[in-house]
Design a protein that fits this description.
α7 links the parallel β9 and β10. The C terminus is likely disordered. Helix content is about 35%, strand content about 20%. It has 2 domains: about 150 residues, Rossmann fold; about 150 residues, Rossmann fold. The chain starts with a strand and ends in a 14-residue tail after the last helix. It is an alpha/beta fold.
């Protein structure tokens, strides 16, 4: 099939484009949010093809993967087709609802032609999706290999824009943890944390291959988000073989089994659990092995791609689907 989607979530897209389809991504001269094109810090296959907006109307597209409310209007303008009417479409919901939770109404709730695909069962439960058909396709992760060494007795956190996002991603918890233990923070826009607190070391916007090398040198991974769908960085850290201490919120209880680490609901418990793993390398290593095995069995790439293929096949008639993938990017 030929699928149109925007580059919105790099880690999720990295998994999605490992499938057997051709993936058409809008690209604009400024590579802004609506035309980011191919990734610069992830390794994507040649089947991911960039297309400028002015060329999209001439392109054959079997299905559109919407990820933001305004993308339907972009389709009408650039593709000259209305999703759900002129071309099959799904709306992929990455996020937990904001606002009047649990009464938050989904942007696609008033229609029934475009199904909403939630990345976690928690999301499906908490969004009011109205008349829209809903599906849950849990995350899939390409295997980065078992890279855990735990040689540095420090905690690792991955978060993007922690100052702007504040309590929702647990920025205050990171700062409190740093007062008791060494904390290294990875992600985009993390340098202001180090400026504000000398006990925090930051690693801003590392390419994925460097992140996957540096992260597992730390002894424990800490997932501080209070209100997030399910951070792919958490699953990646577990797949690398890292033990986990996580805030017991949203989907974390399904992602982190007891043998892989600890789930907590109090800041003092968070700091104590991190301290226990920092002080016990053998226990940390065993928990990391369990974490990796859990991600392999529950969030493997083959299951993820098979789930998506099943849904796509139900929406696109076989007689109209494009056969084959792109030969070059």
């Amino acid at each position: 099939m030929r699928l149109l989607l925007w580059h919105v979530h790099g880690s999720w897209t990295t998994a999605f484009v490992q499938g057997r389809h051709e993936y058409l991504l809008p690209v604009t001269p400024d590579r802004g949010p609506d035309g980011l094109g191919r990734a610069r810090t992830w390794d994507w296959p040649a089947s991911v093809v960039e297309a400028p907006p002015e060329r999209l109307a001439e392109e054959h597209v079997d299905l559109v993967v919407l990820q933001r409310p305004h993308e339907a209007d972009l389709c009408a303008r650039w593709l000259r087709r209305t999703p759900g009417r002129d071309v099959p479409a799904v709306y992929l919901e990455h996020n937990t609802p904001l606002g009047d939770v649990p009464d938050s109404r989904h942007p696609m709730a008033e229609q029934d032609r475009v199904p909403v695909v939630h990345v976690t069962g928690f999301n499906e439960l908490f969004w009011d999706s109205g008349r829209a058909p809903t599906h849950v396709i849990e995350h899939g992760i390409p295997d980065p290999g078992h890279r855990y060494t735990g040689e540095l007795d420090r905690a690792a956190v991955v978060v993007n824009e922690p100052v702007r996002r504040g309590r929702s991603v647990g920025t205050d918890l990171v700062q409190g943890l740093a007062r008791r233990h060494g904390v290294d923070v990875f992600g985009m826009g993390v340098d202001p944390l180090a400026t504000a607190d000398a006990s925090i070391r930051t690693y801003d916007d590392l390419p994925q291959h460097r992140l996957h090398t540096e992260l597992p040198r730390r002894r424990v991974y800490v997932h501080t988000s209070r209100w997030t769908s399910l951070g792919l960085s958490l699953l990646e850290a577990m797949y690398l073989g890292m033990p986990v201490v996580a805030v017991a919120a949203t989907e974390a209880f399904r992602a982190v089994p007891p043998e892989a680490g600890l789930l907590v609901t109090r800041p003092d418990e968070l700091a104590r659990a991190v301290g226990d793993l920092l002080a016990d390398p053998e226990r940390a290593r065993a928990a990391g092995r369990a974490a990796r095995e859990h991600v392999r069995s529950r969030y493997g790439l083959d299951r993820f791609l098979a789930d998506w293929d099943g849904l796509l096949a139900s929406l696109v008639p076989a007689s109209t689907a494009t056969v084959g993938t792109a030969a070059s990017a």
